[in-house]
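Researcher: We're teaching a course module on how sequence relates to structure. For the next exercise, students receive a sequence and then see the predicted structure as tokens, so they can try to spot secondary structure elements on their own. Here is the exercise chain.
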Amino acid sequence: MPARKPSNVARLHGDFKKNPQRENKSEPVPSEGLVVPPFKLTKRAQEVWNRLAPDLIRKRVLTPWDVDMFAEFCEAVCILRGKRRSARRKPEPGASSPMGEYKAAVGIVTTLGSRYGLTPVDRAKIVMGGGNDNPGDDLLT
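Model: And here is the predicted structure for the students to work with:
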């Protein structure tokens, strides 16, 4: 069974038009608050955070509730970069395959990134409203 969509995403997809009773009217919504890394990130992970977090915060995709997992995503991106460099090396006898480690790292980054709409497929599922000065406002309404 696929994971349940958050109500705001299901609403954007029009999932409740035929069955409005399926909408969870009591779904918890994160409060407004400061969105900062929950722990000291490595230098490279902080660069990933600085590059992606501001836009995700503006679009209300990254909230105070999400910072732990997003910080892990930032660290995983750095690990992936390291595995990409080592994937070209010839494996040592008895050691795990560098390409296998790279593929595992890609899987982790893809899974975590999809939670924030950071893959084209996941982003394509989100429909933003038009005409607002702040397009991120429509994401949760």
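Model: If you want an answer key for the exercise: Residues 41-91 form one domain. The chain is about 45% helix and 0% strand.
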